[in-house]
């Protein structure tokens, strides 16, 4: 499913809302998460999972093609940990496969 | 400077402010969006959100693990795990590069 499919499903469940508003709702949610992470905050969504930011130190990497050493600067990377409830649901013994 | 933790309530408040729906309805919509993503993933499909990232379900085969404390061997059953691949936009944002607006 891509974003437009998500917008469509939510719009169909909420006939009183304009499609455009549903789009804004979804974008607001996603932007809010990104902004929080950019500020170094965590985002914890019960039943879904938690987003956080991990610090990666600078290191000397290697160009895998040429073998040449390149310095990789320190950076922050987004990290997602699946929530307990969702993790369990993904492995629930339902005869769906 | 890892400070606050945002929750569903903060997302609802943002929807309330930005879209102008009531707080109750904003909370319901945040829930509806997350629920729909969960249902899609539980079905085994991926959720691809442009400029945010992709959530996908990976199948892990069973293997023999070891309890690191006791050294005891324990079987790990095959399972499905959720992985999130952040988009380039998210990665850049988090490192302070805002991609729109090369103003220097």
Descriptive overview:
The complex is a heterodimer of chains A (97) and B (104). Chain A has 97 residues and is α+β, with helices and mostly antiparallel strands. Chain A is 39% helix and 29% strand. Chain A has a three-stranded antiparallel β-sheet with strand order 1-2-5. In chain A, strands 3-4 form a two-stranded antiparallel ribbon. In chain A, helix 1 crosses helix 2. The radius of gyration of chain A is 19 Å and the shape is elongated. With 104 residues, chain B is an alpha+beta fold. Helix content of chain B is 38%, strand content 28%. Chain B is built from three helices and six strands. Chain B has a three-stranded antiparallel β-sheet with strand order 2-3-6. In chain B, a hairpin with a 3-residue loop joins strand 2 and strand 3. At the A-B interface, helix 1, helix 2, strand 1, strand 2 and strand 5 of A face strand 1, helix 1, helix 2, strand 2 and strand 3 of B. Strand 1 of chain A pairs parallel with strand 1 of chain B, so a sheet runs across the interface.
């Amino acid at each position: 499913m891509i974003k437009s499919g998500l917008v469509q499903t939510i719009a169909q469940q909420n006939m009183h809302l304009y499609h455009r508003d549903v789009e804004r709702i979804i974008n607001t949610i996603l932007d809010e998460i990104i902004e929080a992470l950019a500020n170094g905050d965590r985002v914890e969504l019960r039943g879904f999972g938690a987003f956080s930011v991990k610090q990666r130190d600078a290191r000397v990497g290697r160009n895998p093609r040429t073998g040449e050493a390149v310095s990789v600067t320190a950076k922050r990377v987004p990290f997602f940990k699946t929530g307990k409830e969702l993790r369990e649901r993904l492995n629930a013994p339902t005869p769906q496969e | 400077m890892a400070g606050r933790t945002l929750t569903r309530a903060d997302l609802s408040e943002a929807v309330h402010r930005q879209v102008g729906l009531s707080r109750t309805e904003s909370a319901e919509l945040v829930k509806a969006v997350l629920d729909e993503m969960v249902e899609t993933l539980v079905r085994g499909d991926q959720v691809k959100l442009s400029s945010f990232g992709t959530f996908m379900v990976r199948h892990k085969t069973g293997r023999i693990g070891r309890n690191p404390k006791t050294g005891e061997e324990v079987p790990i059953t095959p399972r499905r795990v959720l992985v999130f691949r952040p988009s380039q936009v998210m990665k850049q944002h988090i490192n302070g590069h805002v991609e729109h607006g090369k103003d220097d």
